[in-house]
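Something for you to look into today, if you have time. Could you write out one complete protein record for me, on any chain you like? Leave the record below and I will have a look.
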Amino acid sequence: MSTTPVNSKITVYVVSCWIFAAFGGLMFGYDIGISGGVSGMDDFLIKFFPNVYDRKLHAKENNYCKYDDQLLQLFTSSLYLSALVSSFFASKACSALGRRPTIFIASLFFIGGAVLSAASEYRWMLIVGRILFGVGVGFGNETVPLFLTEVAPIQLRGAVNIMFQLFVTIGIFIANLVNYGTSTMHPNGWRVSLGLAAVPAFLLLVGCFVITDTPASLIERGKDDQGKAALKKIRGVDDVEVEYKEIVAACEQAKAVQHPFRNLMSAASIPPLVIAILLQVFQQSTGINAIMFYAPVLFQTMGFKSDGALLSAVITGLVNVGSTFVSIYAVDKVGRRKLLLQACCQMLISQMAIGIILSTNLKETGSLDKTLAAVVVVLVCTYVMSFAWSWGPLGWLIPSETFPMETRTAGFAFAVSTNMLFTSLIAQAFLTMLCKMQAYIFFFFSGWIVTMGLFVIFLLPETKGVPIDSMVETVWKQHPVWKKLFKNE
């Protein structure tokens, strides 16, 4: 990719491409936020999970265990298992059909999931709806970050890619607002919450008729003239020859690879593959989705009433959105590593403090003192804040920019599928872990945060300002650990 900033202009068209594609993040974020709120609605529990509702009514029920139900957790986690499998099909579609058609497919599946979920009368309909949502998420999360990285000029690549995560956080925030509004719409508020998931998917569908496919995708599929025209369109200038030749060269090298998944074992692909997988494992091991999925449930566990719990979730959602703007501003200035390491320190302090407060003050019955409950909300906000400008957006950005062209879609499919696997494991296990480990679950996540910091220090290179097709020479062959893979070349 060209390193010359003057060879691109920010036009209305290219900004509209970024925004429309980023609606894929809104789609994903809305689902993350909506599922936890719906799981706490009495009408929803009465219809699909009456056993959980009965336990919830028991005044002396264990604070930490009243939502512990494997089928209720399956309602959330089934989407991510579906997304895990579909991300590999999305990788094939991304290469064979292009980025834009794959985004189109994602929106159709997600709309189907919203319609079926809102119309559900039986538990199986609910789960099938979640699976359709999952296919939409798998296709969208595979394609949208790649699309944003490939259409962004080098000097704005980090900020443009983080628009995906920004829209994820906006989706979570909107979902929390929707849940707050529909919680009093008896008996079908949950239907409205789930059905409104069709709105961001429809916006993404409309966007597919506006955006262009990426130049790299077009050239990779032999459409050189269309690729060059698309490059001129997204750069806003006619002088794109240098960047065009670099893309053509990368695509010709990629065409020589017959089996991109097998080629992930090559020296050039092993470092980004290991880092992509570990980033996803660590991103989920911070406990962020446990908090985002089940924020209303978590705050109810801490003694907030239902409305207060939903309102607290709205507050954390707003913090999440605002803090992502920090990342957009800082990522191409201070770099990836500094953001990740700073966040590890802030998240560790927040999680440890929450664990100490709950372990010493929240027993199996009763509730927290109001002052302490407010402190916990503040600590959750400081935790969410640091995640939102670091591990959240960079977990998608770094894998999308570090793979060579020949293994980019295959490698990113591993990143997406790993993310979905660990998201589903956390979603399926969190309420049971909360029941068994109680407040000590926050110490469990704290241990992971320490490990993440060591990973950044020793294995993660800085990729700020490096052309995505120059990563091997500029980054991997210069890194004290990863350069050992290239010693025979």
Summary: Confidence is low (pLDDT under 50) at residues 1-6. The chain is about 75% helix and 0% strand. Residues 238 and 274 are 38 Å apart (CA to CA). The radius of gyration is 22 Å.
